[in-house]
Amino acid sequence: MQVPRQALLLRILIGEDDRNDGRPLYEAIVLKAREMHLAGATVLRGGMGFGHSSRLHMTKILRLSEDLPLVIEIVDGEDKINAFLPTLDTMMTSGLVTLEKVQVLQYGSRGGQIEATP
Which residues have a Cβ under 8 Å from the Cβ of 111 and sit 6 or more positions away? Predict the structure, then answer.
């Protein structure tokens, strides 16, 4: 699979307790991205954060979690990301979704140096 050098970064910020059809929302998003043949997805767990409600979510020494913030990042070409957005919209009831233009310097394994273009 190839990823265009000029691509988009889709960033999705949700809570660990968010669900989609009984399954964790982050899991449903990643599996759907894979099913739609996007280049890849990564879920990052935050130690502390707040969102629209201003309710603080954080790890505590005596608790395993308190609906911790999650960030899902997906990078692919503009066409594939834009095709994924309507599906994502049906899965989410809250959260934050952002898009950024990015330059892909490496995807997968290869030899040589990584060089940015001016």
Answer: none
